[in-house]
Amino acid sequence: MEIQKRITGDCWEFMLAGRVDGAAANQLEVEILAAMKQNAKTIYVNLAQATFLCSAGIRVLLQYHRQMKNKGLVLLATRPSAEVAAALEMTAFPELVEK
Amino acid sequence: MGPDCARASEMMTPLELVLHNRPSELARLQDQLEALAGQLGLPLKTLHEVQLAVEEHLTNILKHGFDDQGDHQIRVRVLPAPTELRLEVEDDGRPFDPLKHPPPDLSQPLEARSVGGLGIHMMRQTMDRLEYRRVEGKNVLVMTKQLKARTP
Which residues neighbour A86 within 8 Å (Cβ) at sequence distance 6 or greater? Predict the structure, then answer.
């Protein structure tokens, strides 16, 4: 998986391409923690180019979505590919996706 | 049988890999699956669903399967047929039947949700059939994905 990031003020966007497998989930977690450490107020995880999202990836999204929300901040998945949307739907996590 | 099925049946070469119990081995398997799917002309959606199920099962084996730090082999066989793709995964880890794992409670609100058991749930959702057996001290999980015959 490749991660590109775009930082606009205190809004961070991570663009993921390829397989979001266990290793990629760890990589994403490191990036999210770095963004939180630098006081990101909004974090978007763009999944338009992700070919699949495993449960470890969902765990990272859920864990940091909750942490950010508890601080009044935002972490959401955006533009999920069809496969990723299906994974989020089958696990009943639609709230993790930006409407 | 449509031409795609005929093409697939001509190339029904099984893929057999012996992986070691290291996370880096998963990527090797996934790369091989992509190559095989390309040879068989499988739709990307089918490939990604199979990859997801394989990722979840192998991750469970690597995380929970072994009581020691030693080297273990995980044998993966992929058997393509005109109407289905069958994957057999054999490991010598502790006995674990994923089919007996209770399904996750998906009705809880987000704040209360646990992610435990999601991987097995996703395997069930993405594959058409899962069969488990314990044979000679090894776990064998057979995952089958039906392939749709495409018309010309």
Answer: none
- Is there a contact between B112 and B51 (Cβ–Cβ < 8 Å)? no
Question: For the domain bounded by A2-96, which CATH number is listed?
Answer: 3.30.750.24
One-letter amino acid for residue A6 of the chain: R
CB contact under 8 A, B122 and A21: no
Give the full edge-to-edge strand order of the sheet including B138-146: B15-20, B73-80, B84-91, B138-146, B129-135
Looking at residue B90, the DSSP 8-state letter turns out to be E
Tell me, what DSSP letter sits at residue B128? S
How far is residue B74's CA from residue A89's CA, in Å, rounded to a whole number? 31
pLDDT tens digit at each of 152 positions of chain B? 444 444 544 557 789 999 999 998 999 999 999 999 999 999 999 999 999 999 999 999 999 999 998 999 999 999 999 999 999 999 999 999 999 988 888 888 888 888 778 999 999 999 999 999 999 999 999 999 999 865 54
Contacts of A58 in chain B (CB under 8 A): 115, 118
Q: How far apart are CA B32 and CA A64, in angstroms?
A: 33
Give the whole-angstrom CA distance, residue B22 versus residue B19: 8
CB spacing of B26 vs A90 below 8 angstroms = no
Q: Could you give all domains of chain B from N- to C-terminal order, each with its CATH number?
A: 3-146 (3.30.565.10)
